[in-house]
Amino acid sequence: MAHRAYLLLALSLFSGVTAIGQATCVSFSNENDGFPIVQDGVAATVLTSDDDWPGVHRAVQDFQLDIERVTNVNTTIYNFTSGDALTSTPVFIVGTLGRSSLIDQIVNSTDLDVSEVEGNWEAFKGQVVANPLPGVESAYVLVGADKRGVIYGLYDLSEQFGVSPWYWWADVPTTKHDDLFIDASGCSHGTPTVKYRGIFLNDEQPALQNWAMAKFTNGTGAPPRNSPFNSKFYKHVFELLLRLRGNYLWPGVLQSNAFGQDDPDNMPLADYFGVVMGTSHQEPMARGTPNEWSSENGGKWDYSQQREKIYQYWEKGAERAKPYETLFTLGMRGAGDLPMESAGIALLTQVIEDQREILANTFNGTDITDVPQVWTLYKEVEAYYDNGLPVPDDVILLWADDNWQTMRRYPLENERNRTGGAGVYFHVGDPRNYKWIISTQISKLYEQLSLAVARQATSLWVLNVGDLKPYEREIEFFLNLAYDSAVWTPDNLNTYVTSWAQREFEVSEEDSADIAQVLANLTRYNARKKPELLGANTFSLTNYREAETMLDQWETLVAVSTELYDKVSDDAKPAFFQLVHHPVQASANLYKMVISAGINNLRVRQARLSANALEEVVNDAFDFDYDLEDEYHTMLDAKWEHMMEQTHLGYFYWQQPMANSCPLTSRVQARKQALPGPMRISPEGFQAAWPGDMPNQCDIGYNCPSPSLVLDSFDVFGSRYVEVGAGGPNPFTFTATSNAPWISISPNSGSVSPEEPETRVLFTVKDWSAIEGNATAKVTFTAIAAGQKPASFAVDLVAVHNMVPDDFEGFVQGAGVVSIEAAHAARNSSVSGVTWAELPGLGRTESGVTPWPRMGNDGQNFTLGEGPSIEYDFYTFTTGANGTILVSAHISPIFNSQGKERPIGVGFQVDGEPAQSNYFVPPTVPGKDLPTGWVNYIGEAIMTVNSTFVAAPGAHNLKIWMLEPAVVVQKIVIDAGGLKQSFLGPPESVRV
Length: 992
Ligand SMILES: *[C@@H]1O[C@H](CO)[C@@H](O)[C@H](O)[C@H]1NC(C)=O
Ligand SMILES: *[C@@H]1O[C@H](CO)[C@@H](O)[C@H](O)[C@H]1NC(C)=O
Hints:
This protein has 992 residues and is α/β, with parallel strands linked by helices. The protein has five domains: 9-189, Chitobiase/beta-hexosaminidase domain 2-like (Chitobiase, domain 2); 196-487, Glycosyl hydrolase family 115 (TIM Barrel, Alpha-Beta Barrel), CATH 3.20.20; 510-638, Up-down Bundle (Methane Monooxygenase Hydroxylase, Chain G, domain 1), CATH 1.20.58; 679-800, Immunoglobulins (Immunoglobulin-like), CATH 2.60.40; 811-991, Sandwich (Jelly Rolls). An eight-stranded parallel beta sheet has the order 13-12-11-18-17-16-15-14. The longest helix is centred in the middle third of the chain and has 33 residues, at 573-605. One 2-acetamido-2-deoxy-beta-D-glucopyranose binds at residues 68, 74, 76. One 2-acetamido-2-deoxy-beta-D-glucopyranose (NAG) binds at residues 48, 50, 57, 77-79.
């Protein structure tokens, strides 16, 4: 019986009746004898109180609409006045504790216990209450501690009824149900993990801006700057934000926008909805700067020269924002989000003092420490702070990332008891803006943000969301984690995406797992090299079959996504296209375009006719890129016109190019035979082709020896190939023969022509036991072309038969390297409760391992060799120079985020050799934002940390020692003398 109950519970998680990450209290049938919101076509009456917040009345109207969306039944909303006689329908009572006289009356006259709610920021509680009002036997009562507590309580039910927060913003269909019930025990929620949870609509050009202009204006935006971001637009943003359980917004800031000026309704509307407004880190005192400043002809934005004028400008900002819930940005940067020329600690201290004085005067009678304020420690401002800039204790300190979701700093131990607390600001930007498509892994957001929770940066989280679309799911995850961080762990993180897929597309559990896998791969592939940074040679065109593996992976992804797209209901297709299928296709197409250009360039150099077809592949992909954009813009009667307008091809510096441009390709003369003859021989691993002279064959570049391929018995691919290609218009047939009996050549003959210009010939070893040590096979390719003499060319295959002892278990060297995914450890020790644990799905290839829990051992570090270690067993046959091997750990980018006293480090040890510590985060050059080399780490999404050990061929053990927390190791590459250049490192070695 107990077993069965458990099963039912597990199933109910997947029945679609959930709010992601939240408790479930809604059902579509009355098996739990719940409270009927809608039953047999009759809806409960919703009772409110006219003295409640206007924002509550507004949310109740959404609640009414949501019920109708699901059931087609209209509820009645009714402001209760005592003495009213109620009709016979069930009664749903909702309101704010201490504000709604209706709620207060019920609390006074029943035994409803509101102690979990009272005084708790944004908490709510719902349950069935007996005899709440005269003549009402029982009712469902939803009580919010405050305005947003009620609103979240209502939207939580809506989400469970089946209305996605994205019903409008991503056209997610609502599944119809006849009946809706709420369990008598109801749904409740306490105070969220993070107090202020918001987004920053930055980088809203071109997409969001042009879309808003088309949809919310008559073609002309508001004076003085032609801004389209009016209250008609923001009403959609506010509703979304609240449905996602966020509460804070930094509005758009680019050329034309200033929230408070563009539409006089903007500020009151935010407050009416219940959204707390702020302004971005560089716009102090609730004013859109520089736009508002310029519109008042403010002149130079420099406090040392224009103190009085700027002071008055800020006074106006404070006065204007006073009636509305506002979290004020303090501090100051120079014009254009640049450092202020005359800045220094003294000036900034003055700025803060003056801003506090303005707030004290404006909110005369209120304690200044009760006016929420934030100061962002961004770029040079962080340096001032580190150098002693005083910050009042009640001001939230907002720490920033590196633009790429790696936090530069978390609050240190001695910074964790400030009354204002700390926060986290994630943004998007240089060394290259990436606004086009989703390229951030949820596992990465989790990794960094759970650390922010562990280090108590929970007063404020702000996520820069660019144009908002297409980051829907990731925005929601950010806000979801901020609302309830304890729900998500490394082990259940994937269910965030599977639940999300079920909610959005009403798919089966199995399909939701497939969708989650598609999205995990999409974001993994895009995160390892952002599309905006991808180059034709990013992935090796010759080593480890890397480039072709990338193309295969993307192609598979498109195939799976297409299958799923075909499978989801017609209703759900537009949403699936926006949220899954468009980004998959568009990213895959971009990768295909850029990598094919790389292969084209290489083949032109190699005098291969097949280069020409690749030029067409690139050009077609360039066209298809626009087709996809157009499809997005025209669907649903052009609802999302302009929304995918972001340029994304052909960057010249960090900011977007002004037009997309096609990657450079070239072609060979298709009408004339290459000088050395009709046949081109291109062996695996070489930039060169034969016969004839060309660079890359050997150092001199002419008269080079014929090529030699090496294949050992633990090679991951188990084969080597030679591509036989056309060197011009003349078709030929070829044979590939060898006198070595142990080699298999497949195919050993074929035809090559302009129509089929390449054939790949694989060499494998039929019988390793026939080889003692090394053996060499000569393979001769002979081409017969009409009217030409037969032409022959020979390639050597050297087979190396390596063997490991039977009792060895672990990874074995192949092709001169050992490559190990960090999660595939042999042993793992635990010290003071801290163990290296896997963060599934994170990073470029498989996952990451990191010391867990984050604040284990009281957040303290370990001495080298005394902390927890994670171990790998491996076997080598060779060494690099001087009998050494090079151990490279691929580590997720990390800053010295624990301050100067606790640099980030990790230890390595091979066998009994002395352990080596490595404090690998490069120093920051004073005056520069990022540590030396950081651009490369960002570009590669990895830091490679090297240590050298003496290690003779044989069995070995590698230990990675924890020194400091938060280090995430993704992969280990051990060079035993054969490592070749590639982006991701060699694929994982054979494990025995
Ligand atoms: C209840 O009263 C409020 C405040 O006067 C009002 O805004 C709201 O529209 C009323 N609701 C209904 C259903 O009449
Ligand atoms: C639902 O009822 C309200 C009045 O209670 C009314 O204003 C509204 O138009 C109705 N909606 C529909 C779709 O019938």
